[in-house]
Amino acid sequence: MYDVGSKTLFLGKKILYLPTCHSTNDIAAEIVRDATYPEGTLIITDQQTAGRGQRGHAWVTSQGQNFTLSLLLKPTFLRPEASFLLSQAVALGVRNYLQRYLKSVWVKWPNDIYIHDYKAGGILIENTWQGSRLTHSVVGIGLNINQSTFEAPRATSLRLETGQLWSLPAELPWLLQSLEQYYLRLRNGAEAAIREEYMSCLLGYQQARAFRAGDEVLTGTIVGVSTAGRLRVEVVPEGRIREFEVKTIEWIWPAD
Amino acid sequence: METKEIQKLIDFIAQSGLDEVNIETADLKIKVKRNATPGVAAPAPVASPAPSIASPAPSIAASATPPAEPKPALTDETKYLTIKSPMIGTFYRASSPETPALVNIGDEVKPGKPVCIIEAMKLFNEIESEIAGRVVKVLVENATPVEFDQPLFLVEPV
User: Which of A14, A115, A214, B87 is the most exposed place for a label (fewest CB within 10 A)?
Assistant: First the structure.
């Protein structure tokens, strides 16, 4: 069903297609030490029964309509303090793929994929370290392609944004090609270029927005993202720059 | 190998920061181990673990030269090894809220055994042990922040 042809060098050269599975990331974690599954192996499913998002959060997707996949990578070159770059590179790879068809594609910090102000995809990366040596990474990607109705608010798909249905087998090679391109940049040490491009498509960058930080509601401007990946917000009115961890800050969207 | 050469080798290892070195040739086998397990207290000191013993008092197997001075008496804890955090993040003892802890006190670990998860910016980092032994103490509370190099587990070599 799925074949990437000659569009990539190593991503998706080996494909494990499962009509249904609990979580492609879990399957990837099981086969990671099996030498028959080299770096770049793709695990892809039509139906994920126990998809995971952020710790304790589920990722819900409709059967056969969207990309639900995991990639097995071995970024052994990545230092612990630079590991956020992998997250950035993967997000840019997904975004760059959508940019083939759409203009307003953004990365919402830290690594969600947004079209305008609506979420189209999520990324869940699981790394394994031996001490400070990264041995392998499982990169899980959920990307809404043909789904047209959502229970969750503020969600969208490629179909909703373009008004047409897409063939998943025809699109997969383009998605993997884009991901590979960014992964190879990372491997070649283009750290500054990745950080720069990430900032260029960061949702809300340099805009005043409302946030919830714990019990506190604040207005601030996103002024950057630290090397470790923390969001830097210049809080109005005092003008002080504060750094936030993932779960310590939440967006307050303007009423639709 | 001559005594002088062994002395040079030990000096070299002492300066290298390596904790343990095993050398084996046709006619000799040398095992040098540094007795400088860093303290247990968290947060971990960022500086290199300055050994409390002036020279790293290596114990030499199969060598004719005994250590110049007898080793000072060591407290029990110095024989323990630590598993440290390779990064800043949030420490979790289990892979997910529904699953049991990856290791508990009394469990044996060996290189490659997953011991905890450190979540950093939505990246889930499974940390594997690099050492073998028995877990005697978990030094960090579940779901709390950890610093780079902070000791997480105390392990008794077996």
Answer: A214
